[in-house]
Design goal:
alpha+beta, Beta-lactamase, 6-stranded antiparallel β-sheet, 3-stranded antiparallel β-sheet, Beta-lactam/transpept-like, Serine hydrolase
Length: 379
């Protein structure tokens, strides 16, 4: 009888242990699922976020030239600069930001001369290699969340890419070895360990395309869908899209070649964009989105501050380089007659953006960008 009771107690004890194990397992599994869901949130769900001061300012108006918040002596300098631009028949838009506030902005000429459309904050430019700057930020965010490991071979993520088992993620991001294609339309990529542009001008570097494919492979969404969901979530940048020759929007900016009739320069001859492959100079972004994204990246809305050094090193290794210098950032891009010039401090507190669709000669876009940067960095 005692033996029977002991066996019954043992059986009850084992049953209780089994129940406890099942409960613990279920709790652990649910937490793991919740963690995976949270990791997917960056790409699969848009959540409400608190707007920054710059986002608030950009959402309040579409007009350039309405925000001038500088002291009287500084305003005199700005007015003088505007007059010189007007006299030189400058075509383009410019914005200066300080501590999240738009302190000056202006525009001359047309975003689309055929439609007589002036420049606005929602004017959508071809941003060229600025796309790689954004891709670098997304990849660093993926590294932070351990979805991408620098030491892994590319084949871990892109098994069908040629020779991907021979190159690491680190090699790609730091430009130690490159992928190239032999012509503008080839999808057959090869590895090349050398200086592509100078030694072999026939080889076209496609590292940016590989980065785009890497992002898509990790997010399990299309590149544009990943990009839009992340940008909307992080900085409410909702006017970024892929260029399409057949899908033209009302706010699309046209690029023009230089033309002078008599004493007047004319925005008349439109420059058509050459076909692109996904991942390479394929984005259109509004002026507002360029500013929001740039500020958001530098203010660590995409990744934590401890990853700043990694991000800057990757950018400085990219082709072409997004230049992080000792105390400021400098970038310029040219695509189908449209150019972007961007200067900022390393914290994103002070930003100057020049966006033009004309090869201005009397006052170049780069000259204007440097002049306005010197102005805002000293005020």
């Amino acid at each position: 009888m005692k033996l029977l009771i002991s066996k019954r107690k043992l059986l009850i004890f084992l049953l209780i242990c089994l129940i406890i194990f099942e409960v613990v397992f279920i709790i652990y599994k649910n937490e793991a699922i919740k963690d995976d869901t949270n990791r997917e949130d960056d790409y699969s769900e848009v959540q409400s976020i608190k707007k920054t001061s710059l986002e608030e300012g950009l959402s309040s108006t579409l007009r350039l030239g309405t925000n001038i918040r500088v002291q009287k002596n500084a305003r005199v300098l700005l007015d003088s600069n505007t007059e010189k631009l007007d006299n030189s028949q400058y075509k383009g838009a410019y914005v200066g930001v300080s501590d999240g506030e738009i302190v000056f902005s202006g525009a001359l000429g047309f975003a689309n001369a055929q439609k007589k459309e002036g420049f606005k904050y929602d004017s959508s430019f071809l941003v060229g290699k600025y796309q790689d700057y954004i891709n670098n930020a997304i990849l660093v965010e993926m590294i932070q969340h351990k979805k991408l490991i620098l030491q892994d071979k590319l084949s871990e993520y892109l098994p069908n890419l040629k020779q991907s088992s021979k190159i690491s993620v680190n090699d790609l991001l730091f430009g130690k070895i490159h992928y190239y294609r032999s012509d503008n339309y080839s999808n057959d990529f090869e590895l090349y360990d050398g200086r592509i542009d100078k030694e072999n001008p026939g080889k076209k570097c496609v590292d940016t395309v590989i980065k785009q494919r890497l992002i898509t492979a990790i997010s399990h969404l299309s590149y544009i869908e990943t990009l839009n969901r992340l940008l909307v979530k992080k900085v409410e940048a909702s006017d970024t899209r892929a260029y399409s020759a057949s899908n033209v929007f009302a706010n699309d900016v046209s690029g023009y070649s230089y033309l002078k009739e008599g004493s007047k320069v004319k925005q008349k001859n439109i420059i058509k964009k050459e076909p692109v492959i996904p991942g390479s100079s394929q984005l259109r972004m509004s002026i507002a989105d360029i500013l929001k994204v740039h500020e958001g990246i530098l203010k660590n809305l995409f990744f934590e501050e401890k990853y700043n050094r990694l991000f800057r090193s990757i950018c400085n290794s990219s082709r072409p380089k997004n230049m992080f210098l000792n105390d400021y950032y400098s970038f310029s891009s040219h695509d189908s007659g449209q150019s972007i010039h961007l200067y900022s401090d390393l914290s994103g507190s002070k930003i100057v953006l020049i966006a033009s669709n004309y090869p201005n000669r009397a006052v170049s876009n780069d000259e204007l960008a440097r002049k306005l940067w010197n102005f805002i960095s000293n005020n």
